[in-house]
Amino acid sequence: MENRKSQIIELALRNIREKGYLSFSYDDLAKELGVTKASIHYHFIKKEDLGLAVCTKLKEGLEKSFLNIEQAPINSDDKPWEFISRRANEIGNNEVCPLSSLQADYNFLPMAMQESVQQLSIMEIDYLAKILDEIKKEGKLEITQDTGAFATLIISSIKGALQYRRVVGEDLYSIVLDQLKLLVKGNHEVRHK
Amino acid sequence: MENRKSQIIELALRNIREKGYLSFSYDDLAKELGVTKASIHYHFIKKEDLGLAVCTKLKEGLEKSFLNIEQAPINSDDKPWEFISRRANEIGNNEVCPLSSLQADYNFLPMAMQESVQQLSIMEIDYLAKILDEIKKEGKLEITQDTGAFATLIISSIKGALQYRRVVGEDLYSIVLDQLKLLVKGNHEVRHK
DNA sequence: ATACTAACTTACTAATAGGTAAGTGTCAAT
DNA sequence: ATTGACACTTACCTATTAGTAAGTTAGTAT
Asked: Where are the domains of chain B?
């Protein structure tokens, strides 16, 4: 992709993590790049176009993360947490997950973006469920029959934790992550000893 | 409190659940009430004043919920879920938790509101932790030593779930709630049979 | 009747938003 | 040398935002 165009997408993505889709303006981006508002409009005629480009980038990133984890040389037990950590590490302490941010603005997004956000939301849970399925196959996970439901719990809590973290401080995210790990491990150990 | 004033607070609260603090305007409220924008400004000179009034109301509601649950004639095992359900039932399918909504706009809130949101965020977790402590005292909860950490997990996942629900559909919230209940009960049963 | 107050309306401001039209400078291909 | 595409800028438009100042109306107390 052209350099400037992807630069703008990256900038918009950071702004979405920090402020949300509705709360960043073309002028914000223009000032950060040292150009005029109209220059951003040249690359992305409407804000919706830029928003959709960001969604596409998020989708690509999600797919890449999943494929990377699937063939990573680590224990399948660790894969769910590695999947989550890698994605969460891209989010600063003063930011939230970009998908959460888009969900927060959901009622005001143009329809095409709503569809994309919906699709991404489901995809992320499904990918984690697939990763959990592998552990289950190996007999290492019995905490729940329903990996889809368990994946939903994990993703929900991580997203919630990242939003809380920005308000009440860094610790909160790792507390939640540790609790999740403890639940899986604790249960597993109890049943197999 | 005067009728109109509390009516405006209620309306602002609903707007925050639906749209967020930044995305509702005095004109929105005015149109819904059939009055002019300036009339809202008469009751709440600045938007921040209205925002703080909403925060106060949220705080009162949270305290009331906690006190009601503490002295409710139900098993202490059920109290955490009753606490959560009662609060979640006030949130429509097209809305999110008002506190989550304020957290999403956190970086743009006036400082006084940021402080209030931070306080509320901590309070809610602490109240749930207290409810969990009672179960622990009765020996009915051994899933975790740290009720504070477990309360953090529960609140995070519920908040995350409510935000997902609006995007991907009603089921998601009850899936997460069921998973949480299953984790507590499952673990308890395993250890005591 | 007068004065006072609560709850407004009318009419405005300045700032910011997304978006557009027309023009400018730079470069590469012909 | 000319054309044409690319990446812009200048200058504008309309709508919306929070907020303000001044006037109006209805009811209440004296």
From this structure: 54-192
Residue of A117, A166, A180 lying closest to B167 (CB–CB): A117
Would you say the C-alpha torsion A109, A111, A116, A120 has a positive or negative sign? positive
The answer to whether the CB atoms of A103 and B157 lie below 8 A apart is: no
Geometric angle at alpha carbon B105, from B103 and B110, rounded to 5°? 100
Mutate to test the interface with A, among B14, B24, B157 (most CBs of A within 10 A): B157
> DSSP for A115-183?
HHHHHHHHHHHHHHHHHHHHHHHTT---S-S-HHHHHHHHHHHHHHHHHHHHHH-THHHHHHHHHHHHH
Cα-based torsion angle of the residue sequence A13, A17, A20, A25 in order, rounded to the nearest 10 degrees: -50
Chain A, window 89-148: residues with a beta carbon less than 8 angstroms from a chain B beta carbon: 94, 96, 100-101, 103-108, 114, 117-118, 121-122, 143-144
Please provide residue A181's backbone torsions phi and psi, each rounded to the nearest 5 degrees: -60, -40
Quickly give A31 CA vs D11 C1' distance in Å. 18
Average pLDDT of A90-110? 97
Letter string b/e over residues B23-60, b meaning 16 or more CB atoms within 10 A of that residue's CB: bbebebbbeeeeeeeeebeebbeebeebbbbbbebbee
Residue B192 pLDDT greater than 70, yes or no: no
The pLDDT tens digits for A107-155 are: 999 999 999 999 999 999 999 999 999 988 887 776 667 999 999 999 9
C-alpha span between A92 and B2 (Å, rounded): 43
The hierarchical CATH code for the domain A54-192 is: 1.10.357.10
Average pLDDT on B37-47 reads 97
| A7-24: pLDDT as tens digits | 999 999 999 999 999 999
